[in-house]
Design brief:
This protein has helices at about 10-15, 20-25, 30-35, 45-55, 60, 90-100, 115-125, 175-185, 195-200, 205-215, 260-265, 280-285, 335-340, 350-360, 365-380, and strands at about 5, 65, 75-80, 105-110, 145-150, 185-195, 220-225, 235, 235-245, 295-300, 305-310, 310, 325. By secondary structure, it is an alpha/beta fold. It is globular, with a radius of gyration of 21 Å.
Length: about 375
């Protein structure tokens, strides 16, 4: 069943059947069904037939080989991936564009970090350009859609919150504005930490929105979303800003009620190098008793311990033992990637330290995917 679009999730939800129930009836794991629905994995013919029987839907209505009806959407959308990191936006876009039968073509990507470039190249076959401040907008190929998870350290909780006063990172939004002004794309999607909204009593965010709306002439909407509400067991709140030349009223995605759990994320056989020292484990367990298992234990700046059946936000600059699984071990690189929604096919080509930084800086793939599922038809319909 390779290279098929599937409507399993849509039909399952129409029939009010949970992932767990359908997986049990078909005889597969819930996680595998989740991967099939998100098109990270393809079912065998036997499994596909079983799913169609349980949903009482013809196989050719469930798995669509041909391009689906998509409301007069274009056959191809060209996009650029700024501050691309390890490609979270691109993975999310890939899923959405495939859903609508649109060919997605990344015509330019950029990230200043050499290690991020290595990861991106290993997974997409192309090396991003470097420092965006040194790249002329005229040298960037024409494109329809801009993605930009511009650096958040100038606004984040663990940063100094210098905002635009941070000359190296806080002003990089204006690089996005510069490129939008010259290239005039149809639309853009931006992401940052939620603290961007309140930074400098809201003045910073006001400048950003005013630039996009008043100076560049785009219809703009924004909302703070939490990855925990969109299928990922990670509390990660981010401001998403969407804009388009075409007037639109954004329909923000509904919350996902049946998402992944820690059991879907955590690995069973973990190298002992990820375990914290006995001293750290004993200290934390003397301070806290969790009512959840499995759980991610979180230590805040004040040294207070809490635990939840999900992870607090991954942070690139947090202490090494900031998050511990069941108060005992650190997350593995694969687990951190899963918490951000990256598929297990993602190739890890850098050290654990670099992967921890990269995962901590990434956008939550599943959350962005849900935003794009709503946004793309709104602003790219040719009706």
């Amino acid at each position: 069943m390779e290279n098929c679009y599937n409507r399993i999730r849509a039909i399952r939800e129409e029939k009010n059947i949970s992932q767990s129930v359908l997986a049990d009836k078909v005889g597969i794991s819930r996680r595998f069904l989740c991967d099939i629905e998100s098109e990270k994995s393809s079912p065998s013919v036997y499994t596909a037939i079983k799913i169609s029987e349980e949903l009482n839907v013809a196989l050719d209505k469930l798995f669509l080989v041909n391009r689906p009806e998509n409301g007069n959407l274009p056959h191809c959308i060209r996009f650029i991936d700024l501050f691309c990191g390890i490609g979270g936006f691109r993975f999310a876009a890939r899923k959405t564009l495939k859903k609508y039968g649109i060919l997605g073509k990344c015509v330019f990507s950029s990230d200043i970090d050499n290690f991020a470039q290595q990861s991106y190249e290993a997974n997409f076959g192309e090396k991003p350009s470097g420092d965006i401040t040194k790249i002329k907008a005229s040298d960037i190929p024409d494109f329809d859609l801009l993605f930009g998870g511009f650096p958040c350290q100038a606004f984040s909780i663990i940063g100094k919150r210098e905002g635009f006063a941070d000359k190296t990172r806080g002003t990089l939004f204006f690089e996005i504005a510069r490129i939008i002004k010259e290239k005039q794309p149809k639309a853009f999607v931006l992401e940052n930490v939620k603290q961007l909204v309140s930074h400098d009593h809201g003045k910073t965010f006001k400048v950003i929105i005013s630039t996009l709306r008043d100076e560049l002439g785009y219809t703009v909407d924004y909302k703070i979303l939490n990855a925990l509400d969109y299928g990922l067991p990670q509390k990660r709140e981010r401001i998403i800003i969407v804009g388009a030349k075409k007037p639109f009223i954004m329909k923000w995605p509904d919350k996902v009620l049946d998402g992944k759990t820690l059991n879907d994320i955590l690995e069973s056989n973990v190298d002992k190098k990820y375990y914290a020292s006995e001293k750290i484990v004993e200290k934390r367990k003397s301070m806290h008793h969790s009512k959840y298992f499995p759980a991610i234990w979180h230590e805040n700046k004040a040294g207070n311990i809490s635990s939840y059946p999900y992870s607090c936000a991954l942070r690139a600059g947090a202490s090494y033992n900031y998050l511990l699984v069941n108060g005992e071990r650190r997350l593995t690189p694969r687990e951190m990637l899963r918490l951000q929604g990256f598929p297990d096919s993602f190739k890890i080509v850098v050290s654990d330290t670099q992967m921890r930084k990269q995962a901590g800086n990434a956008v939550p793939v599943d959350m962005v995917n849900k935003v794009l599922d709503s946004f793309i038809p709104l602003v790219f319909s040719q009706k």
